[in-house]
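Budget justification aside, the reviewers requested a transparent look at the raw inputs and outputs of the sequence design task funded under Objective 1. We therefore reproduce one unedited record. The lines immediately below are the structure tokens for a 367-residue chain.
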């Protein structure tokens, strides 16, 4: 019998979330962001559910090849552009669009021998200070790109650093528009937080939006808002079962480092899941877990292959009882991945991306 841990990808939820983002984005076209192997879900597993998007955005050329192998003939955007000159050959062969965020990438394009000019997205650093041309250098970069026979259409883009918080997008939006107002070409703005929180403010100013985490059922501005507020559904559930039950007495400790000490007698269950499966080691006593669809708490330190849970609220639980580490339980109860991530001091993105290869994955088909 295989170890009972399992990840379930919910295809209906992916379709729902894409539709929810499209409704929030108005007339803008949708890049479905599938970087990091579709945020840990697997590109091949999510493709059918997300193919109603207008394009796919990612980082890795091999992932772009996988999309073309799935017979996707629409746009694919490389969000960090090309890393070396020979990448441009694959862009030509696969028909990839790519971001240009530095002079070195323009240099590569100018030396590239091709019969097919390429579609590029010129990125402006409007305040996040990661990638992109500073405002005072963007127009010179645009002029240089526009003069290259290797370049077809130039689109313009930026990335908001505070769309999920009180600072918002106004300052970065103003900086971007001040420089690009009279330049031709489509605009690509807005991650998940910007689409959901500031969709009306974007208006007709964004031809493309780039949702990521919202597609996968995590709230981009948790804990201010949860998935219910944004009408998103979880797309990944991590489940397992109890493999042992222990009766603790007052003063008994649990796990490595004796991080939990029982203050009174209690029943404890051992779950087949640990940090080698992608469950965060930094989760500690009190992290929510569902047993038989009922909420309880983690006890002590997470081990490589196991973790312990308090069975006090679930007296009927026994070896084999179902466990939901995050996502949807068989009983219909929901444990948000954002809530579990917060207990580990991180975000839902990391938990999705950290799902270990040893965890079996199944796809829940449409109803």
């Amino acid at each position: 019998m295989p170890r009972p841990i399992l990840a379930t990808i919910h295809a209906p939820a992916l379709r729902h979330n894409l539709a929810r983002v499209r409704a929030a984005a108005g007339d803008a076209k949708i890049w479905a962001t599938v970087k990091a192997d579709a945020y840990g879900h697997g590109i091949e597993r999510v493709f059918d559910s997300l193919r109603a998007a207008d394009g796919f955005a990612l980082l890795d050329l091999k992932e772009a090849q996988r999309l073309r192998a799935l017979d996707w003939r629409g746009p694919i955007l490389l969000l960090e552009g090309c890393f070396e000159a020979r990448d441009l050959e694959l862009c030509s062969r696969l028909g990839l669009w790519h971001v240009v965020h530095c002079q070195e990438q323009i240099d590569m394009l100018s030396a590239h021998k091709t019969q097919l000019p390429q579609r590029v997205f010129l990125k402006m650093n409007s305040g996040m200070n990661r990638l992109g041309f500073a405002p005072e250098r963007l127009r010179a970069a645009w002029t240089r790109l526009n003069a290259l026979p290797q370049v077809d259409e130039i689109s313009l883009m930026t990335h908001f650093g505070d769309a999920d918080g009180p600072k918002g997008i106004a300052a970065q939006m103003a900086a971007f528009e001040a420089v690009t107002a009279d330049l031709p070409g489509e605009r690509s703005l807005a991650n998940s937080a910007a689409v959901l929180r500031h969709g009306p403010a974007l208006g007709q100013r964004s031809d493309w939006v780039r949702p990521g985490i919202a597609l996968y059922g995590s709230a981009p501005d948790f804990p201010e808002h949860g998935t219910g507020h944004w009408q998103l559904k979880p797309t990944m559930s991590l489940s397992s079962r109890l493999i042992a039950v222990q009766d603790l007495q007052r003063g008994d400790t649990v796990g490595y480092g004796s991080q939990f000490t029982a203050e009174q007698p209690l029943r404890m269950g051992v779950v087949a899941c640990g940090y080698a499966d992608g469950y965060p080691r930094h989760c500690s006593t009190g992290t929510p877990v569902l047993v038989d669809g009922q909420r309880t708490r983690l006890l002590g330190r997470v081990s490589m292959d196991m973790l312990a849970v308090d069975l006090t609220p679930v007296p009927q639980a026994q070896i084999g009882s179902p466990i939901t580490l995050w996502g949807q339980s068989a009983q219909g109860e929901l444990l948000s991945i954002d809530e579990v991530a917060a207990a580990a001091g991180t975000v839902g993105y990391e938990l999705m991306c950290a799902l270990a290869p040893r965890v079996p994955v199944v796809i829940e088909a449409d109803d």
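The radius of gyration is 23 Å. The chain has two domains: 26-210, 236-364. Computational costs for records of this kind are itemized in the attached budget.
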